[in-house]
Amino acid sequence: MIANKVLNNNIVSSIDEDGHEIIVMGKGLGWHLKPGDLIDSSKIEKIFRMDTVTSSSKMKKLFLEVDMSSIAISSKVIDYAHKYLNKELNKNLILTLTDHIDFAIERYKKGIPLTNDFKVWIQKMFPKEYEVGLYALELINEELQISMPEDEAAHISMHLINAQLNGNMSHTSEITTLLSSSLQIIQIKTGMLIDESSWAYERFLRHLLALAQRIIAKNENKTANNALNETIRLQFPKEHEIALAIKNYVLKEFDFDIAEDEVSFLTIHINRLLSEV
């Protein structure tokens, strides 16, 4: 493997057998190395490949700005996630996760914690991703001899969730916003605090997650069982009013019109949720 460009003492750009740029990392790998020199394969710790020239350029820029330990930790977390989740993850995850972890470590050292208000629902809705987040947190704390709070595991989990949603971080934001706002609407309308440990709460979160994914995909379903919907509306008038408030919120904030059948399903879930308060 020949060095194409030496980025620093630990990171070197090269070209693979298909003519695509790769980033090669290893402690001391670039020391005294010049373009055209043979790379010492015994020092190679990790090879990174991106799909586009733009992504490769972003990676080189990022890797020059962050600590090598952040890159190494992110790489280990992604390798672990691939095996544990057994899911396809967007290649840009190495960029977003490295950037996040490096900033999180810097923030921690400056005594600026970042809490995660969605930790509970992430644990419930994405337990496997949360387990990977805990693995990442343990890795960070062990390798850097620090003690970051568990909220950081939730933040890392969100990056893993996002990497399964075509890499658009706004999708994760849309999901969390819909969940939190829907629960706020219920609590404001009823004046009740929701029992987050209940089975009804978990089922409601799962239903909202499926709704959020349909919103992201703009998959509107206009079919309606008018007779059943009318029965549910009459049987649960208070819950139906709350479901309509959520429908209006979604229409305003996401430009997505929830079908009447969906309003009825929300009504039933809200009834179960309030029954366990």
UniProtKB/TrEMBL annotation:
Keywords: Activator, Repeat, RNA-binding, Transcription, Transcription regulation
Single GO MF descriptor: RNA binding
Keyword Transcription regulation: yes
InterPro entries named among the record's database cross-references: BglG_antiterminators (IPR050661), CAT_RNA-bd_dom (IPR004341), CAT_RNA-bd_dom_sf (IPR036650), PRD (IPR011608), PRD_sf (IPR036634), Transcrpt_antitermin_CS (IPR001550)
Alphabetical list of Pfam families matching this protein: CAT_RBD, PRD
SMART domains for this protein: CAT_RBD
GO terms (BP aspect): positive regulation of DNA-templated transcription
Domain PRD: start-end pairs: 65-170, 171-277
Family listed: Belongs to the transcriptional antiterminator BglG family.
Protein name in UniProt: PRD domain-containing protein
